[in-house]
Design a protein that fits this description.
The chain is α+β, with helices and mostly antiparallel strands and 271 residues long. The chain folds into 2 domains: 131 residues, Roll (Diaminopimelate Epimerase, Chain A, domain 1); 113 residues, Diaminopimelate Epimerase, Chain A, domain 1 (Roll). It has an 18-stranded mixed sheet that branches. Strand 6 and strand 7 form a beta hairpin. The radius of gyration is 18 Å and the shape is globular. The protein starts with a strand and ends with a strand.
């Protein structure tokens, strides 16, 4: 089986063309290929498949094999993969995901995609849509002897955002899984620890559901902008700075969040 390795700001993925071949047991395949010392190494596996409602479908699996509804950095890498491989040359391009159909605008240079803007849809704050088992999407959790306020949102997948703490690495690795697997999140949560950066944007450390620490998270950056703008901490358009680099997020007048960032190929191989 041939594959391509791509990344968006260091958030890296194994991509497989499911248009021309069957890709059975993709969950088990992700768990086998994603480990960094015993496999190819990646934060997740993406299988590109045909769609009845869009130009392509993205099936995404975390590094532990668990499926996820949506991945912002992953969908940018998929757009580049489909265009550069000649599987789909439409621009804009539509991609079906577990969170709905998303539109991608591709910035092409020298017949290769360099940057992608994605309509990430509208953030959802209803507790049952996130989901969070609370009366409101703003919650307080007691973690490791401290109380932290979290702004919860869905970008097609669940997020818990806090501006109360920007932790050191040891604290981050301790608190991240506590929030991810907290009983109030029945499907788990992606966790963003944030601080305003003084330049109208924010710095963010991301603990991803099913992956742990990652260098970037596109849906997480969107959730941070939605939370920060609602709380009056951020403007409606800002650079969200993650360990792997910055994503530009804009909350449009249509209520949708638009994410712009790079996508890069690392290598191709066969397994």
């Amino acid at each position: 089986m041939e594959f391509s390795k791509l990344h968006g700001l260091g958030n890296d993925f194994i991509l497989v063309d499911g248009f021309g071949r069957s890709v059975p047991e993709a969950s088990a395949l992700a768990a086998r290929l994603c480990p960094r010392r015993f496999g190819v190494g990646a934060d997740g596996l993406i299988v590109a498949r045909p769609s009845d409602v869009a130009d392509a479908r993205m099936d995404y699996y975390n590094s532990d094999g668990s499926p996820a509804e949506m991945c912002g950095n992953g969908i940018r890498c998929l757009g580049k993969f489909l265009y550069d491989k000649g599987i789909c040359r439409r621009n804009p391009m539509t991609v079906e995901t577990g969170a709905g159909v998303r539109t991608l605008w591709l910035a092409v240079e020298g017949d290769e995609v360099r940057q992608v803007t994605v309509d990430m849809g509208a953030p959802r704050f209803a507790p049952e849509e996130i989901p969070v088992t609370a009366a409101d999407h703003r919650i307080e959790l007691e973690l490791d002897g401290r109380r932290l306020r979290f702004f919860c949102a869905s970008m097609g997948n669940p997020h818990a955002v806090t501006f109360d703490l920007y932790p050191d690495d040891e604290t981050f690795r301790r608190l991240g899984p506590m929030v991810e697997k907290h009983p109030c999140f029945p499907r788990g949560a992606n966790v963003e620890f944030c601080r305003a950066d003084g330049a109208g944007g924010a710095e963010v450390k991301v603990w991803e559901r099913g992956d742990g620490p990652t260098l970037a998270c596109g849906t997480g950056a969107c959730a941070v902008l939605a939370a920060g703008a609602t709380l009056g901490i951020l403007p409606r358009e800002a650079d969200i700075r993650l360990p792997g680099g910055a994503l530009r997020i804009r909350w449009g007048e249509d209520g949708h969040l638009y994410m712009t960032g790079p996508a890069e190929k690392v290598f191709e191989g066969a397994v």
